[in-house]
């Protein structure tokens, strides 16, 4: 690692959607924090008055949180991240030690929300967090997508990750989606709504078409969504 490189540690959407140019990335962990869905979001995964829930970190002894560290290239990446995480997300920054799977630890910047954030929601029973996730969406897509893509990233790329908060929330969200017979593929932004859908269907642009993700420029109508035989 070049000592002049700036590394950013991602533990939420930055794991599966960095959205900026980087020179290299490493999977690993930080110590002393737990990942919690305690930060509200009214720009990317919710709207004003109906916030979604996104990840933040809370200090927690010697606990590990797994994620990805990115080596930034140029100023543009940092200004993109500050816009996405600080201006829109209500996060602040701090430096901590990052432990890659192999090699020596090095410092990394991370974005964290605290109770002083205007979007802070704080602790709640996990089933209530799941209900909020399943009923929230914003300019970047559905809140379900945020939770499930993060959990899937950990299952696939970080099998050593033992994050009960994330994985129990994943299970509750999957259960709620199934019970309500919602269309998971549409919630995940993987398909356009069916042309035979009833007027109850919402219109969520497929992920591939969401070129404005994290820029808060698209609007998603707030209607109920169901799978209609697909
Ligand atoms: C992160 O991913 O590191 C910060 C939280 C988020 O943007 O989801």
Automatic annotation (TrEMBL):
Gene Ontology cellular-component annotations: cytoplasm
Enzyme Commission number(s): 4.3.2.7
Keyword field: Lyase, Transferase
Highest taxon of source: Eukaryota
InterPro entries associated with the record: ChaC, GGCT-like, GGCT-like_sf
Annotated Pfam families: ChaC
One record GO biological process: glutathione catabolic process
Broadest EC class assigned to this enzyme: lyase
Chemical reaction(s) catalysed: glutathione = L-cysteinylglycine + 5-oxo-L-proline
GO MF terms, alphabetically ordered: glutathione specific gamma-glutamylcyclotransferase activity; transferase activity
Family to which this protein belongs: Belongs to the gamma-glutamylcyclotransferase family. ChaC subfamily.
Protein name in UniProt: glutathione-specific gamma-glutamylcyclotransferase
Gene: CHAC1_1
């Amino acid at each position: 690692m070049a000592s002049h490189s700036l590394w950013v540690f991602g533990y939420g959407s930055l794991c599966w959607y960095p959205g900026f140019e980087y020179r290299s990335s490493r999977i690993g962990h930080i110590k002393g924090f737990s990942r919690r869905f305690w930060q509200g979001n009214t720009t990317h995964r919710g709207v004003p008055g109906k916030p979604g829930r996104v990840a933040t970190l809370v200090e927690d002894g010697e606990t590990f949180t797994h994620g990805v560290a990115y080596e930034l290239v140029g100023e543009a990446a940092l200004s993109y991240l500050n816009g996405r995480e600080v201006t829109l997300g209500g996060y602040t920054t701090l430096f901590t030690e990052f432990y890659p799977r192999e090699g020596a630890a090095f410092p990394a910047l991370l974005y964290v929300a605290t109770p002083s954030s205007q979007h802070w929601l704080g602790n709640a029973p996990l089933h209530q967090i799941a209900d909020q996730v399943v009923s929230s969406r914003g300019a970047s897509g559905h809140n379900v997508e945020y939770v499930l893509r993060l959990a899937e990233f950990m299952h696939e790329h970080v099998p050593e990750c033992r994050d009960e908060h994330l994985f129990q929330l994943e299970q509750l969200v999957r259960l709620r989606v199934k019970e309500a017979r919602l269309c998971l593929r549409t919630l995940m932004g993987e398909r356009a709504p069916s042309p035979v859908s009833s007027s109850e269907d919402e219109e969520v642009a497929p992920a591939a078409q969401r070129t404005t993700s994290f820029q808060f420029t698209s609007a998603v109508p707030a209607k109920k969504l169901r799978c209609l035989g697909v």
